[in-house]
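Lab notebook, bench 4. Still working through the backlog of constructs that have no structural model yet. Next entry is a single chain of 73 residues. Request: give me the structure tokens for it.
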Amino acid sequence: MWLRRVHRWATYLVTPVLLGHILIAAGVLPGYRGVARSMHLGGRLPVEVARRLWPGWLTAQAATREKRKEERV
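Model written out:
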């Protein structure tokens, strides 16, 4: 009897989380368009998507890239 209740409440808690992940991965929400492609298809991230979602990360990547260029010269 207890396992049935635990299973039912776990279903109520986990289902919205799964649906939210599917919603985000599908790119339905405007802020997450292009993210699934970058995660699952080779790891490439268009600059426009990075600028919109992770501007701090993009700035850090650009600084690291410039530093590497200076070290090579």
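Notes after review: The longest helix spans residues 2-26. Residues 45-73 form one domain. Flag for follow-up if needed.
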